[in-house]
Design a protein that fits this description.
Layout (H helix, E strand, L loop, with lengths): L3 E6 L2 E6 L2 H21 L2 E7 L17 H8 L2 E3 L2 E2 L4 H10 L34 H6 L4 E7 L25 E5 L11 E3 L2 E3 L9 H19 L5 E6 L11 H5 L9 H15 L23 H34 L6 E7 L15 H5 L6 H5 L16 H7 L12 H4 L3 E4 L9 E3 L3 E2 L3 H9 L6 E2 L2 E2 L9 H5 L8 E6 L2 E6 L2 E5 L12 E5 L15 H17 L26 E5 L18 E9 L6 E7 L3 E8 L2 E8 L3 E10 L3 E13 L2 E8 L2 E9 L11 E3 L22 E2 L1 E6 L12
Parallel strand pairs: 3-10, 3-11, 4-13, 5-14, 6-7, 6-10
Antiparallel strand pairs: 1-2, 4-12, 7-8, 8-9, 11-12, 15-16, 17-18, 18-19, 19-20, 21-32, 22-27, 22-31, 22-32, 23-24, 23-30, 24-25, 25-26, 27-28, 28-29
Helix pairs in contact: 5-8, 7-11
Length: 755
């Protein structure tokens, strides 16, 4: 006879059976329920590489060792006709919202807030365009982001926010990463959730390793406590964006590999791509980009440095791949891999920003000044280290983009055709295969919604949502012959493109020219995969048809008005923004002010005042530091003298050592920076209104003073001056309450040009 008793648990009644059969049946039912939940659960992981070209992965033809990303390709699908906006922030905005970049407000990088005349380039995702994190969060997912964000107006990345465009306010439950466009890999400006934390001091720290460690921690926590609940992880590496920084043992793995030069390596990748089936057998080899020398014409000194720069890039990517492997291992270990959809892509093509010689100074590189071969060679032994975060020359950038022409930030295929790998064991039945459907980055998130059976909400937090304009390509996961996207428009920094039904028309806009004078190119990309045969003159009617379609799509998705504002956008300070005030005060104890939130000092006069109090002559240290090894200025007291230094690597070095001792007691330290010409000034140093020295400062940076922010009373990250490099943060021992900036009226700020 089976005896059953009623059990009350937390107010709910249940029946427990004493029968072994009853208990077995109950266990079976529980296991069945758990299995059913597990089988229907779809975790989602987005892995985004930065500035990695079409051919950089082994599975897309590279000699660079990427076994873990190749494993995802071998067990998933490679899309060889996938496209992004050829610039990082717009691609990320399209990826995370499933919509076109302009309609969500991110038509260019979020460093530039171009004001109300350009509503499509305001530096932030509109609230009407809910992110995948917000949507999945409303559908019982936990959501995690690690790595690069670059989706908030960068002047809002200060330690005090505002936070409404940070990851936590855009739907993520937890975040570990950096908020701006690029970062040092050894000492990044770190943010956890809504809190900025000091840069690491551990010599073994590397950002790529840290973001995967944190992602694995988030995943393991959830798999342990809520195993049936799905998760979404957005993993955005700082790699492969400059500065290229990686331990030397990874660089040394590639000794000798690149001695044959970029022409030979690019040809090898091209042939390997044909063998892999990544590109058509009849694809034509793109000629060398303008401005790139033939390898055989280079000097031995050029070859030596260019080889090491590429070895550094390759080692950086292999190191990144190793971290992806750690993610895969943890997904296996926690029994999550088979229930996880992985999407891996790059945000745009490889960069040509290193220009002819490559770069070892991030500030000079970003200001587009170009570095001499002698400057690069001077840090040959330091490449990949904290001292010399590098970027490869443009010649290697085209190798990254094999088989295409040009680089990121162009409408040519080299800027927008990137690798796309999709893994989903539950759906994909022909792993290792290649798909050739036309896919745009905004189509990825709608595909996830389609697979998960999720309909995006009409409102999020009371805000009516715009339609999701991306197109699901779920059918192509199981059907190699599924239809791809028919139409997609593009616009970035004035360059325009339109794809429609196998044809592509685009412009290569010359900065400053009227958009009416743009030259248009026309390609039948169905038959001309590498865009080598311009048919604009042969098919003028087709070109006009596509031009008309571009204007229609641009108006529909809010890509107008046009502007070619780009790097000079660093000088744009919209009225009412945080930095528009001409009197700014920062108090001691403030966390390091991020570089985009600092006062706009470039090419203008200003005054800095620092009241201090010293109890005795031994109280020395840094009063104010803005910048680091690459560039910046600093005020410090050493050997009882006041010192001001302005540095741009080894290129510009100006300093003042006071001609009197800094008095004990109260005093006011002042600098008057008087602009005397374009990117020229005289700096005059005062103690209590007494002039104590001056210096000429020439060839100042034209766009952005430094990629390291402001410290008050210390220098916490990389030291601006080598004079105190061995003194940790060289914190000032005396009293210092605040630093005051008074900005002049002679700034040459950018007003974006519309057409």
């Amino acid at each position: 006879m089976v005896m059953a008793s009623a059990i009350t648990l937390n107010g709910y009644s249940a029946i427990a059976s004493d029968s072994p059969k009853g208990k077995d049946a109950e266990k079976k039912q529980n296991k069945s329920t758990e299995k059913k939940k597990e089988e229907t659960k779809t975790n989602v992981v987005y892995i985004v590489l930065d500035d990695s070209g079409y051919s950089d992965l082994g599975s897309f033809g590279s000699e660079i060792k990427t076994p873990n990303m190749d494993w995802i390709a071998e067990n998933g699908l490679r899309y060889n006709n996938a496209h992004v906006t050829p610039l990082c922030s717009p691609t990320r905005a399209a990826l995370l919202t499933g919509r076109n970049t302009h309609e969500v407000g991110v038509g260019t990088v979020t460093n530039f807030e171009l004001g109300p005349d350009f509503p499509h380039k305001r530096g932030a995702i509109k609230p009407e365009a809910g992110t995948i994190a917000e949507v999945l969060g409303e559908n019982n997912y936990n959501t995690y982001a690690v790595g690069k964000w670059h989706l908030a107006p960068t002047e809002e990345t200060s330690p005090a926010g505002p936070y409404h465009n940070w990851p936590i306010e855009k739907g993520f439950d937890q975040y570990y990463g950096f908020l701006e466009d690029s970062s040092d890999q050894y000492k990044p400006d770190l943010t956890i959730d809504n809190t900025q934390i000091p840069s690491p001091t551990d010599d073994s720290y590397h950002f790529s390793e840290a973001i995967v460690e944190n992602a694995n921690r988030y995943i393991t926590n959830q798999a342990s406590v809520f195993p049936d609940k799905p998760f979404f992880v957005y993993m955005a590496f700082g790699a492969q964006h400059s500065p290229h920084q990686v331990p030397e043992e990874y660089i040394d793995q590639y000794k000798g590999v690149y001695d044959k030069g970029w022409d030979h390596i690019r040809q090898e990748r091209f042939e390997r791509q044909k063998e892999l089936g990544i590109i058509p057998k009849d694809a034509e080899f793109a000629p060398r980009n303008n401005g790139v020398k033939a390898w055989d014409e280079l000097s031995e000194l050029e070859k030596k440095n260019y080889i090491r720069l590429q070895e550094t890039y390759a080692g950086f990517l292999t190191h990144t791949d190793e971290q992806v492997g750690k993610l895969l291992d943890n997904l296996r270990r926690t029994n999550q891999l088979d229930h996880t959809m992985i999407v891996l892509l790059s945000d745009n093509g490889g960069s040509g920003g290193g220009q002819a010689n490559g770069s070892v100074n991030h500030s000079i590189n970003y200001n587009a000044l170009g570095e001499t071969l002698e400057e690069v060679d001077g840090l040959y032994e330091e490449m990949g280290s904290q001292r010399a975060g590098t970027e490869y020359p443009a010649g290697w950038g085209q190798v990254s983009n094999t088989p295409f022409s040009q680089y990121k930030n162009s409408a040519f295929a080299g800027g927008m055709n990137t690798p796309l790998i999709v893994y989903n064991r539950q759906i994909i039945k022909d792993p290792g295969s290649i798909r050739s459907q036309y896919v745009y980055v905004s189509d990825i998130t709608p595909t996830v919604y389609d697979i998960a059976g999720i309909t995006p909400p009409k409102e999020i937090d009371g805000v009516k949502q715009m339609a999701v304009s991306g197109q699901s390509f779920k059918e192509s996961l199981t059907n190699p012959k599924a239809e791809g996207k028919e139409t997609q428009y593009y616009e970035v920094t004035g360059n325009r493109a339109i794809y429609h039904d196998g044809w592509k028309a685009f412009t290569s806009h010359k900065k400053g020219d009227s958009f009416d004078n743009d030259q248009w190119f026309l390609y039948n990309v169905k038959d001309d995969f590498t865009e080598q045969n311009n048919l604009a003159d042969q098919y003028p009617k087709k070109l006009k048809e596509l031009q008309k379609l571009w204007w229609k799509e641009a108006e529909k998705y809010q890509a107008l008005p046009l502007t070619d504002t780009f790097l000079e956008g660093f000088l744009s300070v919209p009225e009412g923004s945080i930095r528009a005030d001409k009197h700014l005060v920062y108090y001691r104890g403030m966390d390091r002010l991020t570089d985009s939130a600092v006062p706009p000092l470039v090419n203008r006069s200003y005054e800095i005042n620092i009241p201090i109090k010293r109890a005795d002559a031994s109280e020395d240290g840094v009063l104010l530091a803005h910048g680091g090894l690459d560039s910046g200025y600093t005020f410090y007291i050493q050997n009882n003298k006041l010192v001001y230094e302005y540095r741009i690597g080894e290129r510009t070095q100006a300093s003042i050592v006071s001609n009197m001792d800094v008095p004990v007691g109260e005093s006011v330290i002042s600098l008057k920076y008087d602009k005397t010409g374009k990117h020229q000034a005289i700096g005059t140093l005062y103690i209590n209104d007494t002039k104590v020295g001056d210096t000429k400062i020439e060839n100042t940076l034209p766009l952005k003073l430094s990629f390291e922010g402001i410290d008050v009373g210390k220098d916490t990250k990389y030291p601006v001056s080598p004079a105190y490099a061995d003194k940790d943060d060289f914190e000032f021992k005396g009293e210092l309450v605040k630093v005051e900036y008074i900005l002049g009226d002679d700034a040459e700020l950018t007003v974006p040009r519309a057409n």
